[in-house]
Design goal:
Chain lengths: 344, 328
């Protein structure tokens, strides 16, 4: 009935759906003599992560921490300087592995700006049919698929298929973007601030829909957001980034219930209080995040960390497993030289 | 009369050859000295348009105003040019969402603050610069003497917003208007700026109107909160009452659809549908098409803003009954 079948699960449920090892991306800074300033933005530095089948991995961090660069690397919108990726056992862009095109069939992305991510000259139906047709789906089947996709995201096909993006509201456009991401029946969807631009009442509709689609289609999500509350609501595991590095990674219960890294703690207590009788008395940390062009030596958080000591400037803390979560902080490494660290 | 600002039945309509928008449709509120009024609303609710009307920042030739805005008794909507330029920046100051675009990129931050001081207070050059330095110290910008000579692009987002606050407070305004001033900032920086605004407000005893779409932010800074929808205030209450016992179905929906701690696994109570198109003046309650308690009387005529006790105002025909209605 359908010539574009969803890709099959290959390695079984225990094999990670996506495994990225040692990803690095440095962007050269323009300027200087002949446009070569020699400076680089260290957007992502030796970052490794794995995404299990069927989970939602939340990624949080402030602007400039590299969370969007991670998304773009994982879908190969930009090529990493270094690092490897494995999708369900298949190395990506390597001999004997799968091609980048095949990766993009199985991994799709939804962006923050719902308007900029749609072609204004194509109707919604044309947009949704574009990828399936490019992958060889006959026109008649593509039409059925468009109807099916619009149904799935709660837009009446009869009413919306022939409209143009500017005729839709922000929430409706974001539904179309989600439908387009589903068009090739992907296994993993990367949601990069996908509800951040929407009003709360509309964003809640889209969040409910994302939860439903995940169950219905057996999807895996990477959910990138600066909104800690939404990440807590959706995610199974959470990854906290600071200046291109992972500072903490663990289950949502561990990260929100028992955060170990001083930055994670600061980030969580910087959330505005929802109770007027328990207003925030003091900001957890001072200053702005430093510029990623020249990140601090050693631990990148040390310039804002209330517990920073000599060792933090000298040595970069490894991402060490502490049981419930992995933390990159010298205070959690026995014998690191930090006065608060356990003795080995 | 203790009211600093009195807004009465404000209407704002934008008219262009091909379109008209009834952005604000009858808004009334007061602000006292030393008080912070939070205005909460989603995009298109008219919250920013209301705020900007207080400084008459909308283009004159295509804006139609109705009603009245009085600052310490002076009518702003009919104010002459010179009174208006004395008002702007001196009696009423404003901080914007994007300090990067609110500052002039070709002058240093110090020069822009000093110029404002000179213009409104008639101080000399040296005194104005001295005042600018004091202001940067007051908003706790590190190495302020150095930062006076910095251009806006040389500062980080949080520092620029602090400088914007310094500029706004440079002439001791009676009223400070804040239009989503922390929305573009990172979480750890946002809370610093919110605390700074709260502290300076007490120190200067200035009235503040703080417009935001973020309930958490409104709760952190406001004494009273007004919720706007479709160009009207649908509910206005002291912040504790607004959070504990919102009465209007829209305020309730907004609070319920805001994700916060402990909602994991629960289904979000989303409000169906989308905000109204404001091309026509709404004939009934603008929230009626999305409201689950809608009644024939809701569409017949717009409901009035009624007091339900303790300074709590609600614009809903079910204002007294809605509590039991939702609990059922």
């Amino acid at each position: 009935m359908d010539s574009l079948l969803p890709p099959a699960d290959r390695g079984g449920p225990a094999q990670p759906l996506l495994l990225a090892t040692g990803l690095r991306k440095h962007f050269p800074v323009p300027g200087g003599l002949l446009g070569r300033s020699g400076k680089v933005v260290r957007a992502v530095d030796d970052l490794s992560l794995s995404v299990a089948k069927g989970e939602t991995l939340g990624v949080v961090g402030e602007s400039g921490c590299g969370k969007s660069t991670v998304a773009r690397l994982l879908i190969r919108l930009i090529t990493p300087d270094r690092g490897t990726m494995v999708l369900d056992g298949d190395p990506v862009d390597e001999p004997h592995g799968i091609t980048v095109n095949e990766l993009r069939r199985q991994v799709q992305m939804v962006f923050q700006d719902s308007y900029a991510s749609l072609n204004p000259r194509l109707t919604i139906a044309e947009t949704l049919a574009f990828a399936p047709k490019a992958h060889g789906l006959p026109a008649s089947e593509a039409r059925d698929r468009v109807r099916d996709l619009l149904d799935k995201v709660g837009l009446d096909p009869a009413n919306y298929a022939e409209r143009y993006p500017h005729e839709l509201s922000g929430g409706q456009r974001q539904r179309v973007n989600i439908a387009r991401a589903l068009a090739l029946r992907p296994r993993l969807i990367i949601l990069d601030e996908a509800v951040s631009a929407l009003d709360k009442s509309v964003g809640a509709q889209v969040l409910n829909m994302l939860v439903d689609l995940k169950t219905e289609l057996g999807l895996t999500y990477i959910f990138i957001s600066h909104d800690l509350n939404i990440v807590q609501y959706l995610s199974d595991r959470v990854l906290v980034m600071y200046l291109g590095k992972i500072v903490e990674l663990g289950s949502v219960e561990a990260i929100y219930g028992n955060p170990q890294h001083p930055y994670t703690r600061a980030l969580l207590s910087a959330r505005p209080s929802m109770d007027p009788r328990k207003r925030t008395k003091e900001a957890p940390i001072q200053g702005d995040p430093p510029n990623p062009i020249d990140p601090p030596s050693g631990c990148r958080f040390r310039t804002r960390c209330p517990f920073a000591e000599d060792v933090c400037a000298r040595l970069e803390p490894p991402l060490a497993d502490t049981g419930a979560q992995a933390v990159a902080c010298h205070m959690r490494v026995a014998g690191s030289g930090h006065s608060k660290a356990a003795t080995p | 009369m203790s009211d600093l600002l009195q807004v009465r039945d404000l209407h704002v309509k934008f008219v262009t050859p091909d379109r008209k928008v009834n952005a604000v449709n009858g808004v009334s509120f007061d602000v006292k000295r030393g008080e912070t009024l939070g205005i909460l609303g989603e995009s298109g609710s008219g919250k920013s348009v209301t705020l900007r009307s207080i400084l008459r920042l909308h283009p004159e030739h295509r804006t139609r105003w109705g009603g009245s805005i009085k600052l310490e008794g002076d009518e702003i909507l009919t104010m002459g040019k010179s009174a208006l330029s004395d008002l702007r920046g001196h009696r009423v100051a404003m901080i914007f969402q994007e300090p990067a675009t609110a500052f002039d990129p070709v002058f240093t931050v110090g020069r822009q603050i000093a110029e404002t001081v000179r213009r409104h207070t008639g101080k000399g050059d040296a005194d104005s610069w001295k005042r600018a330095l004091e202001l940067l110290e007051m908003v706790r910008i590190p190495s302020p003497a150095l930062r006076l000579k910095a251009y806006p692009h040389e500062m980080s987002g949080g520092m620029r917003q602090r400088a914007m606050i310094a500029l706004a407070l440079s002439c001791n305004p009676a009223l400070l208007l804040a239009d989503e001033p922390t929305t573009a900032l990172d979480a750890t920086v946002q809370i610093q700026v919110l605390l700074l605004i709260r502290e300076l407000q007490r120190e200067f005893n200035v009235g503040v109107i703080f417009v935001t779409h973020d309930i958490g932010v409104a709760v952190e800074v406001s004494d009273r909160v007004g919720v706007m929808y479709g160009g009207k205030i649908v509910e206005l209450a002291p912040v504790e009452q607004m959070v504990d016992a919102p009465r209007h179905p829209y305020s309730r929906g907004l609070l319920a659809s805001t994700v916060h701690d402990g909602m994991r696994g629960q289904r979000l109570e989303a409000i169906p549908g989308a905000p109204p198109d404001l091309a026509e003046v709404p004939t009934g309650c603008s929230f009626a098409p999305r409201c689950k308690f809608v009644q024939p009387s809701c569409v017949a005529r717009p409901p009035d803003l009624r007091e339900v006790g303790g300074g709590h105002l609600v614009r809903c025909v079910l204002a007294d009954a809605v509590e039991t209605g939702v609990a059922a």
